[in-house]
Design goal:
The chain contains 43 helices and 14 strands. By secondary structure, the protein is of the alpha/beta class. A seven-stranded mixed β-sheet has the order 4-3-9-5-8-7-6, with helices on both faces. Strands 12-14-13 form a three-stranded antiparallel β-sheet. Strands 1-2 form a two-stranded antiparallel ribbon. A hairpin with a 3-residue loop joins strand 10 and strand 11. Helix 35 crosses helix 36, helix 38 crosses helix 39 and helix 39 runs antiparallel to helix 40. The two termini are 15 Å apart. The relative contact order is 0.05.
C-alpha cells in the first residue's frame, strides 16, 4: 500500500493556521505516541461541537482557496496539496454530517459531560477519539481506480469513524442517561446516518474539487473510453491543462528535453531504412495502447496470461498516465509496464518522454541494454544522461537545474537485466529505495520500468507496485494503423503497381496482426509484392515472417544475390545474434564483431574481399535495416536476434545432415565421426533455452522440415549426445570464442542443446533409455543433468527446465524418464536432476510426494512432513515444488506448524539462494512474519530486506 495523508498530515501540508485544530491534533498525536500523562492533555479544553465548527469551516476555506493552493509551486508540491485538500473534504463532510445527524443527543451535550467518566478523564477519551478520527490515513483518488471504488473506500472510512464515535459515547456518563432502546440502536444510527449523509456531501465537494483542479478531473476521465488517438497526443493536451509548457530552462535541461523529443523520427529507427516504402513517423504511427492494470502483491502471478484476464481493463490509457504521474503513488513506487515482445513497450517510453518534454516533468529515458547491468540505479541514470548529452552530469546537479520539474525516470528493458545473467531480481525494490532516498533529500522522483511479461515471475514485487500490461491490438486498432500505413504508402506502392495491405488480409493472420511490431512487419513484407493479398494463404508463422523479411531485405540490399549468398548473409547476421547471446547482452561493439564474425563465417580466414585485402566485418554486418546504433550495435528488436540464433542452429543442423548424406555408404564414412564442428561452435557457448523465444522459433522452423529429415536429424543428434562429453582431438571454428568459458561449461551447453534439439526434432516423446542405451542409462542421465545444473548458470538451467519437459515413468517395473510431450511433470528440476540421481528409495519417496500432492491422495500430515524432511536433508531437494508443498501443508486446517518450521529453517540456511527461496516461500503461502521469526539475527549480504517495524 502507498502512504496516503491523514487529516493531520493534510493540515501540515496546507499550512493550517487554525490554532484550535492544530492544538487538538497535536495533543492527540502526542498522546498516541507517549501516553496521556506525558502529552500534557490536562490542558485540553475543547469539545466535539467546537471541533466540528473548525473542521467544517476549514474545509470551506480550502475549497475557496484551491486556485491559490495550486499556483506558484512545483509539480510534486501541488500533488501533495491536492491529496491534502482531498483528505480535508473527506473529514469535513463527515463532521458536517455528524452535526446534522438525528441522534438521541447533541454534540453540545457530549461536551458537557463530567470531567472523569468511568475512571478515565474525559479529555483523555476525547484525545483518543481525535486520534482515531484525524490521525488515520485516508483514501485518495487514484487513476487506476474508478470513482466508485474511491467512494467505497471513503464510505469504509466513515464507518470506521462512526464506530469510534460509538465507542466514545459508550464511555461517557451520558450513556447511562439514554434509554435501553437508544443504547441498542445507537451503533446502527451512527453507522447508517452520518456515513450516508457524509457521502452525499463528499460527492458534491469532490465534484467541485475536480472542476477546480484538473488533476482530479483527469482521474475521472479514466473511466471513459476516448476517441482513437496516436502518439499519446491527449497526454500533451491533458498536461497543458494542468500547467503551461515550460520555457526558459537552463541549457542542460533544455538539451535533455530536446533529446527526449523523438516524435519526428521514423516509427522504426533502423540503421538503413527501406527505400521503396515510407515508415510513418513516431508521432503519427504510434497508436495509444490499451492496457490492463493491477496492484501486484507477492501472491500475484503476472507472468501468466490467464492471471491478467480478470484484471481491470483501462478505458483511457492516456488519462491514466497523466493521473498516475500527478498522484502520490508515482513518487512512492515504480510503475511496471509489461508486454509481449513487439507490444510497444520501448515505443511507449519514447513517446511518453516526448510528451513530457515540454511539461512540468523532466523525462529521463534509460535504455537498460546500454548501461552497466550491475550499476546502481543512480549510476545507470547518470550513464544514460552522459551518453545523451555527451558530458558527465551528476544526477543531483541535473535535478537541481530542473528548477522544480518532477523527474520521470523511464527504465526500459528490465527483462534484459533478468535474462542477461545478472542477479537483479530485486531491481524494482532498488528503484523504490532510490525513490524513497530521493524523496528524503527533497528530490521526489517518479519511475516507470518496462519488461517482458514472461520474466515477471522472477521479480520481487515491492509494496505499492502498480503494473500495466499492454494488450494486443483490437480489430479497430489494426484498421486504424493500416489506414495510417495506407495514407503514407499508397502513392509509393502505386509506382510498382502494388497496394497497401488491407485490414482483412492482415487480420487473417490472427495474433500476428495484433502485436504492433508484427503488424508493421506484415505490412513491410506485403509491400514487397503484395504476397499477403494473393488468395487466402494459411496464417504466417512468426518464424516464416522473419525469414522472408530478412531474405527480402538482404536480397534488395545486396542487389539481388543468389540464395547461397543470401544464406551467407543470414549466417553472418546469426553470428552477430549468437555473439550477443553468449555475452548475455543485446548490444555488441565493433571490436567484438571484428573478432567473432570472421572466426565463424570464414573459419578464421579473412576473405580479402576489398581492395586492401581486409573486410570491415562490423560495418558489413550492421549496415542493414535490422540494426540500430545504441552504444554499439543492437537489433531493431530483440526478437530478431532470438530468431537468428534459432535459424543459425537449424542451419548448422541442416549442414550436419547434408554432410552425412554426402558421405553416403562409402566404406570409410561408416567409421568416421560425423562432422559436427559447426553445430558445436554454434551451440557450445550458451543454452539455447536461455531465451524462451529461441526455442519457440526452433519448433516453428522444424515444423517446415519433412518428417523423414527430422527423424534423420534426431538420430544424428542422438549419436552426438552419446559422445558429447568425450574429447575431440581436432575441431574447426576454434577461433570463435565470444566468451572464454571452461571446457566443462562448453560441454555442458553442447550436450544440453543436443538434448533440447532431439526433443524438438522428434515428433514423439523420447525416452532416456533410448538416448543412452545400456543398463546404467539413469546414472548417465543423472550425470548429464547434474552437469547442466552446475555449469549452465541460473539462466541456462531455468530455461532448460522450462523448455525441456521431463516426466518420470515406471512401466513393467522399469524406470525411465520421458522427454518432450505436452504433459507437464509438475516437478521441474526435481525430476530431471534429483529423482534419477539417487537410490530407488529416494525415488520411491518422490513418488509418494507426487501422489500425495499431485493426485490428491490422502496421506497423514506427519507422513508427508517426514517425506519432505528426508528429501530436504538426504536428497538435498531444492525446487519450487518443495516450496509449494510446504505452503500447501502450512495452509491445511489444523496443520502442525511447529513440525514444519525446522524444514523452513533448512531451506533458508543456504545464504546463496536465500532471497529467492524467501520469495518463493511467501508466494507459496508461508506468512512472512513466520520467516522473520525463524531468521537468524546475523544477517548476510544476500539476506532479504530488514523486517518492517
Amino acid at each position: 500500500m502507498i502512504e496516503t495523508p491523514s487529516y493531520a498530515d493534510a493540515l501540515r501540508t496546507l499550512g493550517c493556521k487554525d490554532s484550535r485544530l492544530a492544538k487538538v491534533i497535536g495533543f492527540a498525536a502526542a498522546a498516541e505516541r507517549t501516553g496521556w500523562p506525558l502529552a500534557g492533555g490536562q490542558q485540553l479544553v475543547t469539545g466535539l461541537a467546537d471541533m466540528r465548527h473548525s473542521i467544517v469551516r476549514y474545509g470551506e476555506d480550502i475549497a475557496a482557496r484551491m486556485s491559490e493552493l495550486r499556483g506558484g509551486v512545483d509539480r510534486h508540491t501541488r500533488t501533495q496539496r491536492l491529496a491534502a485538500a482531498h483528505a480535508v473534504i473527506v473529514v469535513s463532510a463527515y463532521f458536517e454530517a455528524l452535526g446534522e445527524a438525528k441522534l438521541p443527543f447533541t454534540l453540545e451535550q457530549l461536551d458537557r459531560t463530567e470531567a472523569i467518566s468511568r475512571g478515565v478523564p474525559t479529555p483523555e477519551r476525547f484525545a483518543r477519539l481525535m486520534a482515531e478520527l484525524l490521525l488515520e490515513r485516508l483514501p485518495t483518488p487514484e487513476p487506476h481506480l474508478p470513482y466508485g471504488e474511491t467512494r467505497q473506500a471513503v464510505e469504509r472510512a466513515y464507518l470506521r469513524m462512526s464506530e469510534a464515535m460509538a465507542g466514545y459515547v459508550g464511555g461517557l456518563s451520558i450513556w447511562d442517561e439514554l434509554t435501553v432502546d437508544d443504547q441498542l440502536l445507537l451503533p446502527r444510527m451512527l453507522a447508517e446516518g452520518p456515513p450516508a449523509h457524509a457521502l452525499r456531501i463528499y460527492d458534491e465537494d469532490y465534484r467541485s474539487l475536480a472542476l477546480d483542479s484538473h488533476e482530479f478531473g483527469v482521474r475521472s476521465l479514466v473511466t471513459e473510453r476516448p476517441q482513437p488517438a496516436t502518439a499519446l497526443s491527449r497526454v500533451a493536451w491533458l498536461l497543458a491543462e494542468l500547467a503551461p509548457p515550460r520555457v526558459g530552462d537552463r541549457p542542460v535541461i533544455h538539451l535533455a528535453r530536446m533529446a527526449a523529443n523523438a516524435l519526428d523520427q521514423p516509427l522504426l529507427l533502423a540503421g538503413k531504412l527501406p527505400e521503396d516504402v515510407y515508415l510513418p513517423l513516431l508521432g503519427e504511427g504510434y497508436l495509444t495502447p490499451r492496457c490492463r492494470v493491477a496492484e501486484l502483491t507477492r501472491e500475484a502471478t503476472p507472468a501468466l496470461r490467464t492471471w491478467w484476464e480478470s484484471r481491470r481493463l483501462l478505458p483511457d490509457t492516456e488519462a491514466f498516465l497523466v493521473g498516475h504521474l500527478t498522484s502520490l503513488r508515482a513518487t512512492q513506487a515504480p510503475l511496471l509496464v509489461l508486454g509481449e515482445p513487439g507490444s510497444g513497450k520501448t515505443k511507449l517510453t519514447e513517446v511518453l518522454a516526448a510528451r513530457l518534454a515540454r511539461s512540468e516533468f523532466l523525462p529521463i529515458r534509460v535504455d537498460l541494454q546500454s548501461v552497466a547491468a550491475r550499476a546502481s540505479v543512480t549510476e545507470q541514470i547518470e550513464q544514460a544522461v552522459g551518453a545523451l548529452l555527451g558530458d558527465e552530469v551528476e544526477y543531483a546537479e541535473l535535478v537541481s537545474a530542473a528548477d522544480g520539474a518532477l523527474p520521470v525516470i523511464l527504465l526500459d528493458g528490465f527483462d534484459e537485466l533478468v535474462q542477461g545473467g545478472v542477479d537483479r531480481y530485486d531491481y524494482l525494490a532498488q528503484v523504490q529505495a532510490f525513490q524513497q532516498r530521493e524523496a528524503g533529500l527533497g528530490r521526489p522522483v517518479a519511475a516507470i520500468v518496462t519488461s517482458r511479461t514472461v520474466v515477471a515471475d522472477r521479480i520481487r514485487f515491492p509494496d505499492g507496485l502498480l503494473a500495466l500490461e499492454l494488450q494486443p491490438f483490437e480489430d479497430d486498432q489494426v484498421r486504424q494503423w493500416l489506414t495510417i500505413w495506407d495514407q503514407a504508402n499508397r502513392a509509393l506502392l502505386a509506382r510498382r503497381d502494388l497496394k497497401p495491405l488491407p485490414a482483412e488480409a492482415a487480420l487473417a493472420h490472427g495474433e500476428m496482426a495484433r502485436q504492433p511490431l508484427l503488424l508493421l512487419l506484415l505490412a513491410l513484407y506485403d509491400a514487397g509484392g503484395n504476397a499477403l493479398q494473393r488468395g487466402t494463404p494459411a496464417p504466417l508463422k512468426r518464424s516464416r515472417l522473419y525469414e522472408v523479411l530478412l531474405r527480402d531485405f538482404t536480397e534488395r540490399e545486396t542487389g539481388g544475390a543468389r540464395r547461397v549468398l543470401i544464406d551467407q548473409e543470414l549466417v553472418m547476421l546469426g553470428t552477430v545474434a549468437l555473439s550477443m547471446l553468449a555475452r548475455g547482452r543485446q548490444v555488441i561493439t565493433d571490436e567484438s564483431l571484428d573478432r567473432d564474425l570472421p572466426a565463424l563465417c570464414h573459419g578464421g580466414e579473412d576473405d580479402g574481399a576489398d581492395e586492401h585485402g581486409h573486410v570491415d566485418w562490423a560495418r558489413r554486418a550492421t549496415e542493414r535495416f535490422f540494426f540500430v546504433r545504441r552504444n554499439g550495435h543492437a537489433f531493431l528488436h530483440s526478437t530478431f536476434g532470438e530468431f537468428l540464433v534459432a535459424w543459425l542452429a537449424m542451419y548448422a543442423l541442416r549442414d550436419l545432415d547434408r554432410r552425412r548424406r554426402h558421405a553416403g555408404d562409402e566404406p570409410l564414412a561408416l567409421v568416421q565421426s560425423v562432422d559436427d564442428d559447426l553445430l558445436y561452435a554454434v551451440t557450445s557457448h550458451s543454452c539455447l533455452a536461455e531465451r524462451g523465444a529461441t526455442v519457440g522459433f526452433i519448433l516453428e522452423l522444424l515444423d517446415e522440415v519433412p518428417s523423414a529429415v527430422r527423424a534423420r536429424c534426431a538420430e544424428l543428434l542422438t549419436g552426438l549426445l552419446r559422445r558429447s562429453l568425450y574429447e575431440r582431438s581436432r575441431r574447426h571454428f576454434t577461433g570463435f570464442r565470444p566468451v572464454r568459458h571452461t571446457l566443462t561449461r562448453r560441454l555442458a551447453a553442447y550436450s544440453a542443446n543436443l538434448t533440447l534439439l532431439i526433443a524438438c526434432a522428434s515428433e514423439e516423446p523420447v525416452t532416456v533409455s533410448s538416448l543412452l542405451p545400456g543398463p546404467d542409462y539413469l546414472e548417465r542421465w543423472a550425470s548429464f543433468t547434474h552437469l547442466w545444473k552446475g555449469q549452465l548458470g541460473e539462466e541456462g538451467w531455468q530455461g532448460l527446465v522450462t523448455a525441456l519437459s521431463a516426466q518420470r515413468v515406471v512401466e513393467g517395473g522399469k524406470e525411465d524418464v520421458v522427454l518432450g510431450g505436452t504433459r507437464p511433470s509438475g516437478m521441474g528440476d526435481v525430476v530431471v536432476a534429483v529423482a534419477t540421481g539417487h537410490s530407488p528409495r529416494h525415488r520411491r519417496l518422490l513418488d509418494l510426494l507426487l501422489r500425495a500432492l499431485g493426485e490428491g491422495r490422502a496421506l497423514p500430515f506427519r507422513d508427508r512432513v517426514g517425506i519432505l524432511e528426508e528429501l530436504l536433508r538426504t536428497a538435498a531437494v531444492r525446487s519450487p515444488a518443495m516450496h509449494q508443498a510446504l505452503g500447501a501443508l502450512w495452509a491445511e486446517p489444523g496443520a502442525d506448524h511447529a513440525a514444519l518450521r525446522p524444514l523452513l529453517q533448512t531451506l533458508l540456511a543456504d545464504p546463496a539462494g536465500r532471497m529467492a527461496t524467501w520469495e518463493q516461500l511467501v508466494k507459496a503461502g508461508i506468512p512472512e512474519t513466520e520467516l522473520w521469526d525463524l531468521h537468524d539475527d546475523v544477517r548476510e549480504p544476500t539476506d532479504p530486506p530488514a523486517a518492517p517495524q
